[in-house]
Design brief:
mainly alpha; 9 helices; about 65% helix; globular
Length: about 180
């Protein structure tokens, strides 16, 4: 059986060390996801690079967190649901009722944000083969081709992190304990 080590800056491969040190300096802790990704420096670098590209998308901060949280719930990733619940609240200033609805896999009262969450779930569940009706609902909410592709970018980011977390059995950091989530 493969054993996944949770790396820190002293145990990680050389290429991963500066990235873990930067996370420690910037966040005050190293997310356990990063500690597992560090085993493959190119994976950690890719995750951080794709994160930066997604953050520069046309989607607002709250829309970005809706995509990342909806995908993580759909993929049943306990670590990422906790992390993005915290980011949705603290960084994106998402209302608690929006975060709770997403964590339950439910609808959001805001029709535009609800369409975004539903489209994200469709992309995950249908593996990109989204029905025309779902695309129409997304378009009627005011989104276009750019945002559809950006949702796929966010889902790609979460596929990488969610799947690594599943393989490694990533535990939620104590710093995220207030946002802990258990898959149904």
């Amino acid at each position: 059986m493969i054993e996944f080590k949770l790396h820190d800056a002293s145990s990680a491969p050389e290429q991963s060390r500066p990235l873990l040190e930067a996370a420690q300096d910037g966040m005050g802790f190293i997310p356990n996801l990063y500690g597992h990704l560090a085993a493959a420096p190119s994976a950690l670098e890719a995750y951080l690079d794709v994160s930066r590209h997604f953050e520069s998308s046309s989607l607002s901060k709250i829309e970005q967190q809706i995509v990342l949280l909806a995908a993580s719930v759909q993929n049943r990733c306990e670590f990422c649901v906790a992390a993005h619940s915290m980011l949705a609240e603290k960084v994106a200033q998402a209302p608690k009722e929006v975060i709770e609805a997403l964590r339950r896999g439910g609808d959001i009262d805001d029709l535009r944000l609800s369409a975004l969450a539903e489209f994200t779930r469709d992309v995950v569940v249908q593996r990109g083969w989204v029905a025309d009706e779902a695309l129409d609902r997304f378009a009627k909410a005011g989104y276009g081709p750019q945002q559809a592709v950006e949702v796929v970018l966010g889902v790609s980011l979460k596929t990488l992190s969610n799947y690594v977390n599943h393989l490694a059995g990533t535990q939620t950091n104590p710093e995220l304990a207030d946002y802990a989530w258990q898959k149904p």
